[in-house]
Fold this protein.
Amino acid sequence: MNAPTYDTVNVGDELPALQLPPVSRTTLALFAGASGDHNPIHIDTDFARRSGMPDVFAQGMLGMAWLGRLLTQWAPQSQLRRFDVRFQGITHLGHAVRCSGHVVEKLEHEGEHCVRVEVHSANQYGQTRIAGEALVALR
């Protein structure tokens, strides 16, 4: 990967999109084990249904992790200075999430050249699941 530099990045530049396979029960179980988020609404169908949901659904932090992967496939993790998101919708089983982002500002922050990147994830129906932004230092 050729890391972007401050001089080569422009406002409006798109990050290479990240297309994920449909969410499966296996994905949810693996993330629960890796993250320690064993909330039964994400892994126990009976519990989810008793809670009024049609079935289990993805952990919000799994969706944020996918956006983090989008960012760190574009620039090294060590250059990430801030990463904030707003959870806007539930990612259900079978949703195929696409993560995207684009540069919205070039700035200096605490003595570093940085870019502000808006990030977004949506399911295959175009429904936003998570939106946010990151501050990335660039050499």
